[in-house]
Specification:
This protein has one domain. The chain is globular, with a radius of gyration of 19 Å. The protein has two helices and eleven strands. A hairpin with a 4-residue loop joins strand 5 and strand 6. With 193 residues, the chain is of the alpha+beta class. Helix content is 15%, strand content 41%.
Length: 193
C-alpha cells in the first residue's frame, strides 16, 4: 500500500513539474521582445492632459481596441514620448485612458525588438490595468500585441503575437493571440512561434 502511495505521489510530482515547465515555456513563446517600462506600469491612474482629444478606439487593424461602452461613450486620447517596449528608444506613443473600465491603452507604430536579436516593424498595442479596474486585475498588469509577417522576427506564421504580464512586467503567458476589446483582454490562442 505504501509503495502504491509513493508511486502515486511521484507521478503527481512529475506531472506538476511538467505542467510548470510547460507554463514557463509558454511564457516565452513570442518572436517579439517587449519589456514594459516601469514608468508605464506605475501609471495606474493617469490624468489625461488638458489638450487630449476624445476617441472611441486606438490602434490599427488586428492590433486595435474599441473602448466605447455605449454608442456615445468616448475616452481621452493624447500623444506622449515614452519607451513603450523597453528597447531603449523613445517612441511617439498614442495613449487612451478608458475611464470607465480603468484601462490605459498605448499604441505605437515603428520598430520593435525581436526575440532573436533582430528588429521588426509595425504597430504595437499595449493595455495596462489601472487602479480599481472593472476586471479586478492587479493594477500595473496587462498585455501587449504586435502583428508580424511570416519570417519577421523568425515567426513561423504571420499573425498577432503577444504576452500577458504581471504588475512587474514579467510575462505570464505568450503566443499567437487575438485582441478581445470587449473584455479589455488578450486571448492567447496558441503558444508557438
Amino acid at each position: 500500500m505504501r509503495k502504491l502511495a509513493l508511486v502515486s505521489f511521484l507521478c503527481s510530482a512529475f506531472l506538476l513539474l511538467g505542467a510548470a515547465s510547460l507554463l514557463a515555456q509558454g511564457a516565452s513563446q513570442s518572436p517579439v521582445k517587449v519589456k514594459p517600462p516601469a514608468v508605464v506600469l506605475n501609471n495606474t491612474a493617469p490624468t489625461p492632459p488638458a489638450n487630449s482629444k476624445q476617441s472611441k478606439s486606438i490602434g490599427k487593424g488586428k492590433v486595435s481596441a474599441n473602448t466605447a461602452n455605449t454608442p456615445t461613450d468616448t475616452d481621452s486620447m493624447w500623444v506622449d514620448k515614452i519607451d513603450i517596449d523597453g528597447d531603449g528608444n523613445v517612441d511617439e506613443t498614442t495613449m487612451l485612458w478608458d475611464d470607465e473600465d480603468k484601462v490605459l491603452y498605448l499604441y505605437k507604430e515603428g520598430t520593435f525588438a525581436c526575440a532573436n536579436g533582430g528588429t521588426g516593424s509595425g504597430g504595437m498595442l499595449m493595455a495596462i490595468y489601472g487602479k480599481g479596474n472593472t476586471h479586478n486585475r492587479p493594477a500595473g498588469s496587462g498585455w501587449w500585441a504586435v502583428e508580424v509577417d511570416k519570417d519577421e522576427c523568425a515567426a513561423k506564421a504571420a499573425g498577432v503575437y503577444g504576452c500577458k504580464f504581471d504588475a512587474s512586467g514579467t510575462p505570464t503567458a505568450c503566443g499567437m493571440a487575438v485582441v478581445d476589446d470587449k473584455n479589455d483582454d488578450l486571448v492567447i490562442a496558441a503558444a508557438k512561434m
